[in-house]
């Protein structure tokens, strides 16, 4: 067996299940799960209908590269969403369909890393655990950049020692961030592009939350958008990862894409032909329909705004929290240890949240996820309101 498997940490939800063992929540309260970032809004009917209408495609093997129509629909969406001139992104060489961002974020590191280099994979801390697992199984060493309130929950790239950049071969960034919702702005992207050119590493930008944001007039900046504005019109050393899971409430569709540097994607395509991960044809057709429609995405954002407003209105008077600029998470500071808060909240109120320390690692003397819990506002509005009131009642018992 691959010895690097021994380095993998238990997944956060494994830890959470263990934390809740032996606890019996009150039977008179229905369970409300706010721990997993799984969208609960209905998948738009037109996406479902398109999927059903193309089930005859199950009789054909799909290609790794996907239908030209799908890549073209994605290219058109990127151009419109990120203000990149039409035609600048080559749908044939700069886009690949993937089965959700999780699969791609993991497999990309296996392709991009040469373990003989003793490389580092740099990532934010807290982080999506796939980044760490991908680095370890690729034979690289993870390097964690703490994101704390003092730095607006963004990595402090300016204070990374030069020897770290010299060993870096892959940088994962997540904007909007999971779990904080913090957004990386253009000037930070510019710095990262300069660093990537100077030290020759690839930036893997996880942008699966970009379409869930608060200000309709100020959508989050994308890495390719910044690269274009910086004059990097070939998007060298840049790869973005997008998904329909959050944008279109279709997590079960397992549909997304990677786009960016044509040479990097040429090698990644070669890898994927062996990886055996072609997207089924019915899924491709449903994805085309989804990427071509924005009305359902706007309606989706409005539902999250309503939930954030109601949730924060209830809890703001008694605890530190604010609406993030994007994503559907509340990153709540806890008055007691985050694991104790999560376990006791479940025991008292039958509400499940995720301890922040399960999403981060000890680095530079701290664990930046400690004394926080991640709350995913994915449940219906009435359940989010009920959960907020239960959390409020629970916090009152701690004072």
Feature tags:
40% helix, 2 domains, alpha/beta, Aspartate Aminotransferase, domain 2, single chain, 399 residues, Aspartate Aminotransferase, domain 1, three-stranded antiparallel beta sheet, seven-stranded mixed beta sheet, 14 helices
Largest sheet: 7 strands, mixed
Distance between termini?
50 Å
- Total of domains: 2
- Rg is 21 Å
- CATH class descriptor of the largest domain: Alpha Beta
The CATH topology assignment of the largest domain is Aspartate Aminotransferase, domain 2
- The run of helices and strands is HEHHEHEHEHEHEHEHEHHHEHEEEH
Shape field = globular
Side by side, the strands of the main sheet go 2-8-7-6-5-3-4
Strand content: 5-15%
Chain-averaged pLDDT: 96
In words, what does this structure look like?
This protein has 399 residues and is α/β, with parallel strands linked by helices. It folds into two domains: 3-42 and 296-398, Aspartate Aminotransferase, domain 1 (Alpha-Beta Complex); 60-293, Type I PLP-dependent aspartate aminotransferase-like (Major domain) (Aspartate Aminotransferase, domain 2). 40% of the residues lie in helices and 14% in strands. It is built from 14 helices and twelve strands. The protein has a seven-stranded mixed β-sheet with strand order 2-8-7-6-5-3-4, sandwiched between helices. Strands 9-12-11 form a three-stranded antiparallel β-sheet. A two-stranded parallel ribbon has the order 1-10. The protein is globular.
